[in-house]
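Margin note from the TA: students keep mixing up input and output lines. Inputs are the sequences; the output is the structure of the whole complex. Example:
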Amino acid sequence: MPNCALLKQLAKRRILYSAMSEKVFINEVGLRDGLQNLDTFISSDGKLALCRSFIDAGLKEIEVTSFVSHKAVPQMSDADRLFSNLPDLSDVDFSALVPNIKGYERAREAGAKRVALVVATTETFNQRNINMTFSEAVSISEKVIALAQVDGVRVRTYISGSFVCPYEGIIPVNQVLDLTERLLAAGTDEVGIADTTGASNPAHCQKLFSAVTQRWGPERFSAHFHDTRAMGLVLAWIALQEGIRRFDSSIGGLGGCPFAPGAAGNLATEDLVFMLNQSGYKTDINFDRLLLAIATAEQLTGKSLGGRIMPWWTSQDK
Ligand code: COA
Ligand code: ZN
């Protein structure tokens, strides 16, 4: 006898997937994850110019900065000024990372309508990243989510080290599910499954995203990958096949976390956009204009940037 409730649920999910299958949303994190590791301070005007190049390329979600301690991440010391000087655009979602209530209050004061929290999967990673125990990190997140709900501010909560913790090793899928359950119950609008050090692999990625989407559906989840071990695109493809339609990526593959040894560049926005466009997904992002954004990022950082697509792309006759 077939399980009717389960069949109905599956049919519903299938309909949901097909209805939302074409459009993929990309959150550009180059200004935050991309720059936070950089020693040379980039001026607020330079950051605003990079932000403008993202907007020109059609990016609609941009993580601009973090309201963290200037001692912990000097690059983000201009967060208040930067956020307050963003262009007033109703169709672009600007967000900022906040590690605690003070960060949330600063972000709200600067006009943020969307913030990102971060909870790592292990004790050590939370200690090193935000100087909190795991319980403190969860409880502060619950408090910030409650405040944000009252203020009408949307919250994405990243689960840092969702696959591997740089200090404690491989993270079992159930551990991430338990944490996800708590964050969703607290009312976070979105959970960002983050492979902070780019240490996941296709099998582990499939297992986690499949477990997550079977339990809660894909709508409240996003995926955040780093390309440290050349897995970025394949992991994104796997998450996509599991129904995920929200991804973080960083222009030119800029990125890394100062508190996660081994965290190299993020999945490059241009690689992700190219793969999605080639596969028939809709991003509304102009690839040529992304290249202008890479040039701006190169000029500002003094680094040679670009995802895996770039050597081939630049060798083509246009
Ligand atoms: N923004 C600015 N300053 C902050 C702050 C915030 N969000 N939170 C705390 N501070 C200040 C306090 O006011 C205090 O300042 P004082 O020394 O002048 O009195 C000082 O920082 C220490 O406060 P405390 O609450 O004890 O913080 P902490 O030293 O335990 O540091 C964090 C905690 C979260 C503020 C710090 O670890 C941090 O900013 N980490 C950055 C994490 C990050 O960006 N990781 C990468 C992305 S995942
Ligand atoms: Zn990251």
